[in-house]
Amino acid sequence: MQVMSSRTLLFVAAAAVSASLMTVRIRAQATIELPGARQPVLLSKPRIAPLPEGQWTEVQRQQVAKYGRDGRADNALRTLLHLPELVDGIMPYTVYLSDESTLTPRHRELLILRTAWLCGSQPLWATHTARARTTGMTPAEIRRIAQGSDAAGWDPFEATLLRLADQLFRNSSLTDATWRALSASYDMFHLMDAVETVGHFTMLAMLYNSLGVQPDEGAADRLPKDVAYRVVVPPREPPLTVAHFTPVEGRGIAVNRTVARHPKLYERWQPRQGFVVRVSKLQPKQRELLTLRTGWNCKSEYEWAKHVGSVGRAREHGLDPVRIAEGAGAPVWDPFEKTLLHAADELYRDAVVSDATWRGLTERLDTGLVMSAVLTVSDFRAISMSLNAYGVQLEEGDEHFPQLSAR
Known about the structure:
- It is a single chain.
- The protein is mainly alpha-helical.
- It folds into 2 domains: 53-238, AhpD-like; 257-390, AhpD-like.
- It is built from 19 helices and no strands.
- The longest helix is centred in the middle third of the chain and has 24 residues, at 188-211.
- It is globular and about 55 Å long.
- The N and C termini lie far apart (42 Å).
- The relative contact order is 0.14.
- Residues 1-6 and 8-30 have low confidence and may be disordered.
């Protein structure tokens, strides 16, 4: 006789007690398609051109020397140089997850390439295909990454890694079965590094897609055109009621204290979060609008709670959380606020901002601010994956998702 998991039992009970309310919430959430329903549409030219070397400041030259592979800037880095603060925000984590994490080089590249495939990122695929070959990965194996976990030839654990990427991309969470399979071979540090690799490279892909970053000259590898785009995962399971990792003792919110269980990762993760919540010059109202809509789309109740409450203080910025949950169709938004909500929805669903929404953003935001807006959504998409996968629990006084009225 099969024993149901505790969170499955919780879900069954909740469904029995409040089926009508659950129907209302699901109906509202279903207005946004899940990611992976269709292959992301790639841009054939940059929206923001890479910054020519002749225009670099001394600060930007130092950044290239610090973060560029072999001291050289690829198209992605030269594009990010338009906003040096963003470079210092995301590149320490990129370097850590690419080169220094506890994962083997092969497992890193497996996760990064599958994420690049899911998000339709040509520059990430081109760069990391070349790197995968240096680990001994064969052309057949690289092509098989695009085919997914069900393709013949994967060992069971590597198939599980591919399922990890697919589930995080589609559902912003993991099944109990996937977590158990990973935990059989990975300790806490490896588990966190695996989840964070998928989350961070999803963030990079969404950013690169929307900025129109192109593969570097001479990088011949491209996403295979003869492999059908398919993302098949089990339905999303109910949220965890007990965290996988107990936060460290001390002051501060639970997400920070959870990531702090992995000190080296935490050190490199902090600048990314610091850029979004402290360094970015987006207006707080705009930042919180994008953040909360992303948390709602990803069903990350912890993220929602903190940005309605103590971290984002949404109501103090004139934001009604219920209207954010209702989306761009709610009757309270001005045209630019609707554009921001469309950007959050498109990035979640399509991994790229549409041409029309991009035009609407750039009519009001300069280059640095539009990059910050895209990064805000992309970052909190990654954070949502982590919060849901680790089961970070709400804290005393946190506000739950609203129940939306039927229309």
